[in-house]
Design goal:
The protein is an alpha/beta fold. 38% of the residues lie in helices and 17% in strands. The protein has 2 domains: 198 residues, Rossmann fold (3-Layer(aba) Sandwich), CATH 3.40.50.1100; 97 residues, Rossmann fold (3-Layer(aba) Sandwich), CATH 3.40.50.1100. The strands form 2 sheets. A 6-stranded mixed sheet has the order 1-2-10-7-8-9. It has a 4-stranded parallel sheet with strand order 5-4-3-6, with helices on both faces. The longest helix is centred in the C-terminal third of the chain and has 19 residues.
Length: 313
């Protein structure tokens, strides 16, 4: 890892040392539709907690320790749609912290089972309110007893996007030998896009960074936000993206199935949405006769979504 926060904590390997340095995978079948354009996916599902959220989860916890806000006397509390919560629960179990999470009730059964397996205490919130409902409930719980909790607040914590600035982006630059031309990512907390895009633009000013969002407020792409109808994260920078794409739930489901059946990549729905966005970018490039390297994020694996009916289509 690039930053001090990600350096080994001792002379031996620990579970947390396995976070990051994920491979960048080719998708030959998906890429074959676009002559001279390669689509690559950062295999974040290979992190020990199973998702890209291990990176900011660790960085926020280490920053809490560094500043003294997190002590063994306090419980880690945050709102989550699932993956950051799993990261907190895994890291908390490894470091000896209790974890309490506000989670929409309609989060996949697998996510809730994983969180309980790690020993996290769950507060389930109104499914109709999505991640925003979990955020509002989390604020209520924290304000009722602030001395009891360390509330990293992933939506407003700069250690979130800095994790990607310090690790994800440098890894992509090295893995593409600085040949990346386009970076594409769905928005949730916006930490992955914000941190990665800021570092890529610093190192390669000509790189294009394209954000993507669900095309409507009520959608089935877990972990992502439709910014016009949501509580906008404080770390979101609307001026950072060169372009924004709107992605449908149906297209995301279809691509998630394709990735499993045509590329052997059993990934989650937001990863499918990211690849849909990447193919839209590649199609626009091909229409102009451009070549290049489009990189996106394979956010997590499919194990948390196998009960979803779209697999049967």
């Amino acid at each position: 890892m690039q930053a001090a926060a990600f350096q080994k904590r001792n002379n031996g390997e620990s579970l947390l040392d396995a976070i990051g340095n994920t491979p960048l995978l080719r998708m030959p079948v998906i890429s074959s539709a676009f002559h001279g354009i390669e689509i690559l996916g950062k295999a974040e599902f290979l992190n020990p907690g199973g998702s890209v959220k291990d990176r900011p989860g660790l960085n926020m916890i280490l920053e809490g320790e560094r500043t003294g806000q997190l002590t063994k006397a306090r419980t880690i509390l945050d709102a989550t749609s699932g993956n950051t919560g799993i990261a907190y629960a895994m890291i908390g179990a490894s470091l000896g912290y209790k974890v309490r999470l506000c989670l929409p009730q309609n989060a996949s059964p697998e996510r809730k089972m994983i969180l309980k397996a790690y020993g996290a205490d769950l507060i389930l919130t109104d499914p109709g309110s999505g991640s925003d409902g979990a955020i509002l409930k989390c604020r209520e719980v924290y304000e009722s007893d602030p001395d009891r909790y360390f509330y990293p607040d992933q939506y407003n914590n700069h250690a979130n996007w800095k994790a990607h600035y310090e690790s994800t982006a440098p890894e992509i630059l090295n893995q593409t030998s600085y040949g990346i031309t386009h970076f594409v990512a769905m928005l949730g907390t916006s930490g992955t896009f914000t941190g990665t895009a800021r570092r890529l633009k610093r190192e390669l000013p000509m790189v294009k960074c394209i954000s993507a969002q669900p095309d409507q407020g009520f959608h089935g792409i877990e972990g992502t936000k439709h910014m016009p109808s949501a509580i906008v994260p404080g770390i979101y920078d609307e001026d950072l993206a060169d372009e924004n794409l709107w992605i449908s739930t149906e297209a995301s489901y279809e691509m998630t199935r394709r990735l499993a059946r045509e590329e052997g990549l059993l990934v989650g729905i937001s990863a499918g949405a990211n690849v849909v966005a990447a193919t839209k970018v590649a199609a626009a490039m091909a229409e102009k006769g451009e070549t290049g390297v489009v990189v996106t994020i394979l956010c997590d694996g499919a194990a948390k979504y196998l009960s979803e009916p779209f697999w049967n289509d």
